[in-house]
Amino acid sequence: MPWCEHCDRRLEDEELTAEGTCPTCGDQPLEHRKSPWYFKFMVVATVIYLGYRAFQGITWVVHHI
Fold first, then answer.
1. pTM for the model
2. pLDDT (tens digit, 9 = 90+) per residue, 50-59?
3. Is the domain of 14 the same as that of 39?
4. How many angstroms separate the CA atoms of 4 and 11, rounded?
5. What is the pLDDT of residues 28-44, one digit of tens each?
6. Which of 2, 43, 48, 53 is buried deepest, with most CB atoms within 10 A?
7. Residues 22 and 42 in one domain
8. What domain count does the chain have?
9. Which residues of 30-55 are buried (b: 16+ CB within 10 A; e: fewer)?
10. β-strand partners of 3
């Protein structure tokens, strides 16, 4: 994901100029940042937690029918 340090914002590839610079300030070169490790960790932890809660909910429904 292209990141403009001067504007302090993320840009979509479609927003870039033909030269690959920021359309607002013309800052170049733009950095390509990846998602931080802690964001990926939180996504994985959330999926595991919600999967566990879904399993608990299904088990509760099965035992109460």
1. 0.59
2. 999 999 999 9
3. no
4. 7
5. 767 777 888 999 999 99
6. 2
7. no
8. 2
9. beeeeeeeeeeeeeeeeeeeeeeeee
10. 10, 31
Which stretches within the chain are classed as H helix? Answer: 37-63
Structural domain containing residue 40: 35-65
Q: Does 53 share its domain with 28? A: no
What is the DSSP code (8-state) at residue 8? Answer: T
16 and 41 housed in the same domain: no
The DSSP code for 59 is H
Give the mean model confidence (pLDDT) for residues 8-19. Answer: 79
- Chain-centre distance for alpha carbon 48: 18
SS3 17: coil
Query: Hunting for tokens 């340090």 — which residue is that?
Result: 5
